[in-house]
Amino acid sequence: MSNKDAVIVVEGLTVRFGDDLILDNVSLEVYRGEVFVILGGSGCGKSTLLKHIIGLYEPAGGRVIINGIDMTAADDNKLRQVRRDMGMLFQSSALLGSMTVFENIALPLKEYTDLSDRAIRLMVRMKLAMVGLSGYENHFPSELSGGMKKRAGIARAMALDPTILFFDEPSAGLDPVTAAELDLLIKNINNGIGTTMVIVTHELESIFNIAQRVIMLDRGEKGIIAEGDPMRLRRESTDPRVRNFFNRHIAEHLIEGA
Amino acid sequence: MTSDKLSFSLDGSPGEKQTLYLSGRLSIEYLDKMLSLIEELFREKRPAEIIVDLKDVTYMDSAGALFLLELEHRAANESIPVNLLNMSFKEKGILDLIDRQSLKEETILTEKRGQGIVEQIGYGAIDFLNDIKNVVSFTGTIIIKLFSSVFHLNTIRWGDVITCMKKTGVDGLPIVGLISFLLGLIMAFMSSLQLKQFGANMFVPSLVSIAMIKELGPIMTAIIVAGRSGSAFAAEIGTMKVNEEVDALITMGFDPVKFLAIPKVFAAMVVVPFLTIFSDLFAIFGGLVVGVLGLDLTIHTYIQQTMKAMKIFDIVTSLIKAVVFAVLIAGIGCQRGFEVKNSAEEVGSATTSAVVSSLFIIIVVDSMFAIVLSYLK
Description:
The complex is a heterodimer of chains A (about 260) and B (about 375). By secondary structure, chain A is an alpha/beta fold. In chain A, about 40% of the residues lie in helices and about 25% in strands. Chain A is globular. The model of chain A has no long low-confidence stretch (mean pLDDT about 85). In chain B, helix 6 (about 160-170) runs parallel beside helix 10 (about 255-295) and helix 8 packs antiparallel against helix 10. Chain B has a 4-stranded mixed sheet with strand order 1-2-3-4, covered by helices on one side. Chain B has helices at about 30-45, 60-75, 90-95, 100-105, 115-150, 160-170, 175-195, 205-240, 245-250, 255-295, 300-310, 310-340, 345-375; strands at about 5-10, 15-25, 50-60, 80-85. Chain B is α/β, with parallel strands linked by helices and about 375 residues long. Chain B contains 13 helices and 4 strands. At the A-B interface, helix 4 and helix 6 of A face helix 1, helix 2 and helix 3 of B.
């Protein structure tokens, strides 16, 4: 494992909201080109961990190193450089409502490159073709369905060919067919471009479909309780919390109480 | 990481087979260069066949793939065969991600659905008239629901009313007080400059009190409340609309107007008259400061003169005016909030429009009051 190229290194990350300790001393590594899934029950701090990795919040302790740059200590210039190299799909897509799909995707292109208008138009059209949204340039986000918004969000996240893509619950709120299509898209991008993917989800279907390696967080433990290949975890894990999660079992004390 | 630049060389005489050797990075920073390379190739060499050799390409991103597809596309238009040589597994992966067919698809909506000037005027007029209709009907709805609430006092959400009274009234008092104090101060000072010449300083107290009680007190208070609270109502309800909270209320069987708007209107109706009274008092106090310090009036004379100028009729009508303003400001604020559909931008314009429409209506209603009251007396 250690000879692999780690693009994201989290060391002893501690997260606190006020007096609430959410994550205690979490460490993990994500390797280049893998599909890495963070999973766990609701309220275990999955999204919080993701938002700390991408540097939206400042941790109470520990470090996050992306592409060799310490996010917690980097200056604005360095942060900009790291951020150019990553893309994020938010849970609600977070497309800017006052701009068309075209303008949303062109935004990072215009900000970070000095391409001509024609080149930007071609790039946007290509990104839309990649996510299967060709022809929707002039739609406003409010005119798109949930699945289409996610696709447009992915196109925007991929505008600059980032080496790392983050997804916060990509299939939440989507029908199974659309969710499966999205999984396929994620897989294809990973296969085609070799983008490293960090995905937060609790959809079992997705996890078995796309994840190469998972970590599982637990609310009580305030940290990682399992790590590895999801198929193997389901078969071999001895931890009841992990087994329950993968087999959709309700925790035993709840069944007894019923 | 390699940082080698993109370079290329063309081999072959014009009109015949062209071999394009690419090396270095086929990446986004060179996209413009690559696109002009295509133009140049077709314009100057008129190739019969194109061979692209990717042997020395160190890195290719989706912009590089776009370049290759554009090249293929142009060539296909002129039915020139294109051969890609020495493509690595990874480069092929990127190319395969892009669906060539859908790249050519037409845009569904035409860009910037623009309108001519006549159309714009027409739509503008329709919007304006609709807007008036909406405001009138919403204010009507609110008044009806207010009456029904008064008869069923237990249906009012008193907790919300109290919070809203605090936000609109108590929290607004400092700014209302400060502005009114300064207004009274300035009025007394400016008028005394003129009145001094005639030895008519004695009239400064009555001037300040009459102006404040009859007109400026209610108006100033209404303007401040519109800016502070009318906008807040619109933003709050608008954001709730965006978050589907209003839909949730309807689903649970609540009437959103009764649930959200009535407490706000009710609270405003109670506190705006009080704010108006405070506004009058602070202005009179401001005038008093000028009168005592600058005009050699005693506190006693100033207050006596002020009391003499006050009439019960004026005070009562000014408070009625304040109540009417309160209903209009809160009502318009809530109505603008309910008009928001689903975007953050609409919340912004609802907030702006809540304040602007409130100010407009305050002035209109105030003029109506002035005319009606002058006949009533």
